[in-house]
């Protein structure tokens, strides 16, 4: 008789992660404290996203994520995994399509999606198939002190409270610092800042 695997609760934290920074780490910290699941998958976007111009390739973004996790989260009760799912499936060009394919490939597992509270309004208004995603996905929202919650939240969503350390830093802001010759510290982990310097990423062309 075959062994039937038990269903897992898997939290997906998707993003460009260009570069991965302190704000990403604070969201992860909240999820690790407050999400009662089995695994967390960090899922970097594919290089050829239609909605964003990505100047650093997927391999480099994955390497930076690995460095950040090694520094900030060397040991966790819930396993943290960098998933190449979106990178390997560039045809899945919306988060809704990613959700559908994950559910098709892993029918026994239950997927949740982690977002910051400021992202839902953008998702609903600007993302392709954003409303379809919001209506069908299980969404874990990290509340941020500097962002007002919208009047309506996704119907299958859950707020998990503010991070222990508040941060409103963005990748766009950090890229502008790096382009002007700054190190990106303290918004980046030292290992990520050093990697960016060695690889000469985000410099003005």
Automatic annotation (TrEMBL):
Domain Cytidyltransferase-like intervals: 12-175
One annotated GO molecular function: ATP binding
Enzyme class: transferase
CDD domains attached to this UniProt entry: NMNAT
Reaction it catalyzes: nicotinate beta-D-ribonucleotide + ATP + H(+) = deamido-NAD(+) + diphosphate
The protein's annotated pathway: Cofactor biosynthesis; NAD(+) biosynthesis; deamido-NAD(+) from nicotinate D-ribonucleotide: step 1/1
EC number of this enzyme: 2.7.7.18
GO biological process, one term: NAD+ biosynthetic process
InterPro entries: Cyt_trans-like (IPR004821), NadD/NMNAT (IPR005248), Rossmann-like_a/b/a_fold (IPR014729)
The entry's keywords: ATP-binding, NAD, Nucleotide-binding, Nucleotidyltransferase, Pyridine nucleotide biosynthesis, Transferase
PANTHER family: NICOTINATE-NUCLEOTIDE ADENYLYLTRANSFERASE-RELATED, PHOSPHOPANTETHEINE ADENYLYLTRANSFERASE
Function, as annotated: Catalyzes the reversible adenylation of nicotinate mononucleotide (NaMN) to nicotinic acid adenine dinucleotide (NaAD).
HAMAP family the UniProt entry points to: NaMN_adenylyltr
Family of the protein in this entry: Belongs to the NadD family.
UniProt name for this protein: Probable nicotinate-nucleotide adenylyltransferase
Protein source organism: Candidatus Abawacabacteria bacterium RIFCSPHIGHO2_01_FULL_46_8
